Target: Homoserine kinase
Amino acid sequence: MNQIKIFSPATVANVSCGFDVLGFCLDTIGDDMVIRKTTEKGIRISKIVGADLPFEADKNVASVSALALYNDAQPDCGFEIDIYKNIKPGSGIGSSSASASGSVFAINELLGRPYNKTQLTQFAMKGEAIASGCEHADNIAPGIFGGFTLVKSTTPLQVLQLPTPDNLYATIIHPQIEIKTSEARAILPKNIPLQNAITQWSNVGSLVHALHTNDYKLLSDSLNDVVVEPYRSQLIPHFDVVKAEAIKVGALGAGISGSGPSIFALSKSKITAEAVAEAMQNIYSKTDISFNTYVSKINTEGIRVMKNE
Amino acid sequence: MNQIKIFSPATVANVSCGFDVLGFCLDTIGDDMVIRKTTEKGIRISKIVGADLPFEADKNVASVSALALYNDAQPDCGFEIDIYKNIKPGSGIGSSSASASGSVFAINELLGRPYNKTQLTQFAMKGEAIASGCEHADNIAPGIFGGFTLVKSTTPLQVLQLPTPDNLYATIIHPQIEIKTSEARAILPKNIPLQNAITQWSNVGSLVHALHTNDYKLLSDSLNDVVVEPYRSQLIPHFDVVKAEAIKVGALGAGISGSGPSIFALSKSKITAEAVAEAMQNIYSKTDISFNTYVSKINTEGIRVMKNE
Model:
């Protein structure tokens, strides 16, 4: 095998109560990437379609993560990476993570899978660090593991793969405004009330239990964020009404995807998820903000191979 | 059926990371209670053995909780309650909760089980409020439901029954010093660092996942409390060395039981749990503090009927 084409999906980090630890993987939106072996050693970005991203190997997240794996594996070949970007940078659904994860996943396949998923996550975090300024895994892990993940700790890296209820669908709306991750971090308080923290860890515990027991009602009850959302939602115009409308038409819950501006909702069926998309669109249609919406089953597989030669 | 004898077990609340929400049920330590129907209406405490507790129906936690149920059910008989107290009040292993839960459980049996476990928990919380000043369920729920419980919320009351790994044993050491619940509450900060809160909810999520997957290693990794233990452990002499020794001889983890002074440890086998007990005893034996130790399988049944007539 000398060349591989993969689909590297978008992901939703935080998932309301699970700030900095939970995430899930989408299916209908993601980047395509083609990675091929070269006789010339090293890592090279050979093509970028759909976004204005750097070609320098030490500046592109896909090559930085690939280099972390490459320097560890020390293979007797090199690799070049074509990136077909469908996930808009800055959308809050793991654009940089998809690039960082996709390249290490693909190279691992081309090398005969010397690394496990946790190791791939670790390499991809090196790429993510270029984009966000710190090594975190809450978008990386769901892409590489699929489904719902809980990043138990980053040092040492411990990723838990949580079960995914069968009929769970996500709706995403991406209002095209810019929120920098650094700004979204800066707006958060350094200290929070103990009572709110207790509410939050109760919700995280019950969300994990709900996923294990296929309990949609409990999942719905657990999708609350009393810690981060009250701050970050201020950065997203019409957030409160979008969330309220989503729940009104049947969503189990809704919240900020990653650090925004995308808003996610979870629903028990595709029909409901589509109704939620329509309700969300109706709100932004009345504004001058451009937007994209996506409806997706939760992707339990994660990154997948499209074609190899 | 006119009379019932029950065993109302001791319980461990908080369970390291799960402050205010998690708890589990013990098996080898608990109160015996005999409850019988009377022609005279109302609730009466008829006997108290083993502790100096009030007989007045509006002051004893067992009768206060019983009255909450009684006033709702409005049966055409009364009940009298004999309490054989084995759990020392103030020990931190749910002494008042055992009394509050036991009476409502028993009366529900005598009435033909008109109430479910959540309703019984709700009634018992009225009794617990007399002892602790607020209605909480983190010791009540494990007694009534058995095994591990997560109190998702108290208004409305939502209790989740979590799975219990087969070979899980608890060791308890009760150093006989007095810590008032109110003092143990007062020592806690009103605000905590967001980073610590994130660590805590990551641990709660992974602890719930560990219980669902029978993963003892993950359970061990999750039994950390970075929020409450650093404060409350100061109130318990030799806590740090007791915890360290417990883990050294094989415990999965150890922490403060409820608001203390009891210390609990969890182990994968009875043999390890007994070695942990010995290690804990060795430390307090060298001091002038009296203590009791208990080794118990996790009780997945909760309160149980010993005899009915």
User: Anything to note?
Assistant: Chain A touches chain B at residues 17-22, 150-153, 158, 160, 162, 188-194, 197-198, 200-209, 212, 218, 221-222, 227 (CB under 8 Å). Residues 220 and 253 of chain A are 6 Å apart (CA to CA).
